[in-house]
Design a protein that fits this description.
Chain lengths: 524, 150
């Protein structure tokens, strides 16, 4: 079994050498398909001191700053915020976040506890992010996306009682396998299968669905080895296990709980996923160590004008109120289109139409700190995600600090539903926390006893982006015009990619943009 | 963009409210849980899938106010949300109906979030009920229906 050997080898490498080594090893065994990321960018040729003005010090802007400076450009970066990173952002104890409308939240998490309001997990095939993490010394650790012992919860099924993922997943697979195996065995699918494949298919369904010799999925040792035992195996006189009873297929089908079974099978949710040790903004901090000297913070760009000779930008120093100007030969504009669309600019009509074609989605996220890890201590849930039909949509348990005592922060909700994202967006912070506790307590009654403090971020109220990420109304019509160098200006960011909302989109978009810009500078 | 499988969301018919609520202690930022008795509006917000409130004022305060702010005053940060109070583009309903249905620049479309009745109700509220706006409420359900993007 070559596959098993390879997996064991990887497990061993991961255990001894950490996730970065695991990733390198996975690449070398060619387990991972190559992405569009081609490795460190090469910008050969002398730009002869050409100056590039970069708008925005998120990941797209800082990638451009780092690579263009090392290629010999004179680089200046303007950033609205007081720090670098953009949506690559972490909130920790001591931080204060003020949203549009003026509500401030002072984060009072204990110690190193944190929440990532924006990106929070990195897929294994986002090679650009992972490569920069390695180059810049950002320590990565596994992010637990899938946990068979976490819950699927539907407030209207099973009396509102959360069900363990492993029960729903195993029973769903087993009973759909049983149906298929029996249909094949009764020759109902003969027109779709050769006789050799019929036999192999039944055999495979028995193996993957935990079916017995009669192609049945039923209570017993075999199914319990997947879904869990009624009484788990132990030792001593009373060590013998007892089987558990499967949930009927009809109940599962009617519960709708199958809706989340494949979430961790999505390409960008497949295990292993990664996160920086200590918070997602460790990536931002690492970039800022490299290019922080190029960044002017608290600088709100209000005007972007270009002609055949260069670009001229007016910006306001948000601390003094002074309006200042910056000039350059070229501009890499990573400002979200939500903001760029409001700016005084003379970009081409084609690019302007592209900018105005993108709307920004809303989303809400909560970081809730509890006095103890009751999900681990009481319910044996170590990382991963529980899904619910309630408006918080999910609860994600920390992948780090497992088994430690003391307060811990979980993700108390992450909304995607439009209506609910708007509704939470319109609430004040204390009401959002109140609702997150109300809904979360339906999965974990311990919430009420154990809650310490919380913070929430609703993305339409984030002052420097006005939304979570960009969505094209008509990508086919406008995308190429957003990618194209517009005389002296090239746009970059997650919104100018097919990896929207992901850090990888920001990075790959930036590399693509500066590669073309450099070519134009060198070759005309 | 993400593609997530979701629960088919049928109505959250009854929300059983447990005893959750917070008193924010402003000086410490540490809330104390006491009891949570939702207001009548709060009870409505999550009473089913999608946008469950129906009056113009309710729709405004539970959706629009998030960006355009509770009194329609708008907000300014790195970017801005325009004020709707005192906004003379609201004199006639057509503009607001178009924007709500189609979105505008970074603002999303609400065509799939709000019914014709809800769009008409909220536009009428913008025209006559919001702050200093004292235009005649003139949006009709028929107008919204005809204005929907094809």
């Amino acid at each position: 079994m070559e596959g098993a050997t390879r997996r064991s080898a990887l497990a061993l490498i991961g255990a001894t050498a950490g996730s970065a080594a695991l990733y390198a090893a996975m690449k070398s065994i060619r387990h991972v398909q190559p992405s569009s990321y081609k490795g460190p960018i090469r910008l050969d040729g002398d730009p002869k001191g050409a100056k590039v003005l970069i708008l925005g010090a998120g990941l797209a802007g800082m990638v451009a700053a780092l690579e263009l400076r090392s290629a010999g450009y004179d680089v200046e970066v303007l950033e609205y915020r007081e720090k670098a990173g953009g949506r690559c952002w972490t909130l920790r104890g001591g931080d204060t976040y003020t949203e549009l409308g003026g509500a401030s939240q002072k984060v009072s998490f204990k110690g190193d506890n944190y929440i990532n309001p924006g990106p929070w997990r990195i897929p294994y095939d986002h090679h650009g992010v992972l490569d920069y993490c390695q180059r810049l010394g950002v320590q990565l650790e596994p992010f637990i996306q899938q946990n068979h012992n976490a819950y699927i919860h539907n407030s209207k099924a099973f009396g509102g009682k959360p069900q363990r993922f492993k029960h729903i997943a195993t029973d769903y697979r087993g009973q759909t396998s049983e149906l298929l195996a029996k249909a094949v065995d009764q020759n109902r699918l003969d027109d779709m299968l050769t006789s050799e494949d019929r036999e192999a298919l039944i055999e495979s369904l028995r193996a993957t669905g935990a079916l017995d010799d009669t192609n049945s999925y039923k209570a017993g040792d075999l199914t319990s080895r997947y879904r869990g035992f009624g009484k788990p195996p132990g030792a001593g006189f009373n060590g013998a296990p007892s089987a558990s009873d499967p949930i009927s297929l009809s109940e599962i089908l009617q519960s709708g709980m199958w809706g989340r079974l494949a979430d961790a099978d999505l390409l960008d949710h497949q295990m292993p996923m990664f996160q920086p040790v200590g918070g997602m903004d460790m990536i931002a901090q690492a970039f800022a160590r490299e290019v922080g000297d190029l960044i002017r913070f608290n600088s709100k760009v209000v005007s972007l004008q270009q002609d055949d000779d260069g670009v001229k930008v007016a910006y306001e120093d948000t601390r003094t109120g002074d309006t200042l100007t910056a000039q350059a030969d070229w501009c890499v504009c990573t400002v979200p289109f939500s903001i760029l669309g409001q700016m005084d600019h003379n970009l081409s009509p084609e690019l302007t139409a592209a900018v105005n074609n993108v709307f920004y989605r809303g989303s809400a996220k909560w970081g809730l700190e509890f006095k103890r890890r009751f999900w681990e201590q009481d319910e044996h849930i170590y990382g991963g995600i529980s899904y619910t039909d309630l408006p918080i949509e999910m609860i994600s348990y920390p992948s780090t600090g497992l088994f430690t005592k003391g307060p811990a922060v979980l993700l108390g909700g992450y909304t995607w539903d439009d209506a609910q994202a708007y509704e939470f967006n319109a609430m004040q912070p204390e009401d959002r926390i109140k609702w997150a506790l109300e809904f979360g307590s339906k999965l974990h009654p311990q919430y009420l006893e154990e809650f310490k403090t919380g913070v929430s971020v609703v993305w339409h109220k984030v002052p420097w982006v006005l939304g979570c990420f960009g969505i094209w109304r008509d990508k086919e019509a406008h995308y190429a015009n957003a990618v194209k160098i517009d005389n002296r200006v090239v746009c970059a960011g997650e919104h100018v990619s097919y990896l929207g909302a992901w850090l990888e989109g920001a990075i790959e978009s930036s590399l693509d943009a500066i590669g073309r810009l450099h070519d134009k500078v060198i070759n005309g | 963009m993400r593609h997530q499988a979701r629960f088919p969301r049928t109505a959250l018919t009854v929300l059983a409210f447990s005893a959750v609520a917070l008193n924010m202690q402003a000086d410490q930022g540490i809330p104390e849980i006491t009891s949570f008795e939702p207001t009548p509006l709060e009870k409505k917000i999550f009473d089913g899938p999608g946008v469950t409130v129906t009056s113009g004022e309710e729709i405004y305060s539970t959706l629009c106010a998030g960006c355009h702010m509770p009194k329609g005053e708008g907000a300014v940060g790195g970017g801005m949300y325009p004020a709707l109070a005192g906004n003379d583009k609201l004199e006639y309903p057509d503009y607001a109906v178009f924007i709500v249905l189609n979105g505008y620049k970074a603002m999303p479309s609400f065509a799939h979030t709000l019914s014709d009745e809800q769009v008409a109700a909220v536009v009428n509220y913008l025209q006559s009920g919001l702050g200093e706006n004292s235009y005649e409420s003139a949006a009709t359900v028929e107008q919204v229906e005809l204005s929907r993007p094809q």
